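Thread: Newbie trying to understand structure tokens

Hi all, I'm a second-year student working on a class project, and my supervisor (Dr. K.) asked me to get a predicted structure for one chain before our next meeting. I've only ever worked with sequences, so writing a 3D structure as a token string is new to me. If someone could post the tokens and maybe explain what I'm looking at, I'd be very grateful. Here's the chain:
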Amino acid sequence: MSGGITAARVADFLGRGLLDVLVDLFRADPSLYGLLGELLASPEIGVRLGASALVEELAATDPERRPLAAAALAPLLGELDPVRRGDAAYLLGFVGSAVELGPLEELAAGDSNADVREAAAEAAERIRAQ
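---
Reply by user tm_fold:
Sure, no problem. This is what the structure looks like when written as tokens:
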């Protein structure tokens, strides 16, 4: 990662409300997108909320790199924790493409958690509408 920027450092920036700084950093260094999955899997809700805001902002301001964000988030669809599966599904609706439709549709049809099924169905619909 660029200049020693780690997920912990990004989490610190999120905690200090430096979303705009992070957006600029991620746009300048695409390798940072690889940290998104780790941030979203954090046990700290504040980090997860900040990571969600970061993904949504990056989806809007750096759309050509949405596949990098999707690649970092897609593995979380297999997490044991339904909150993490649901959060990943929700965010894939902003950054995902046809590549993520299959896994999202599988979750929407058969996840054991109703919230995950709903998030996955909505994300798949958002991707189809793009």
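A couple of things are worth pointing out once you decode it. The helical segments are 7-15, 19-28, 36-40, 45-61, 66-73, 82-95, 98-110, 114-129. The mean pLDDT is 95. Feel free to ask follow-ups in this thread.
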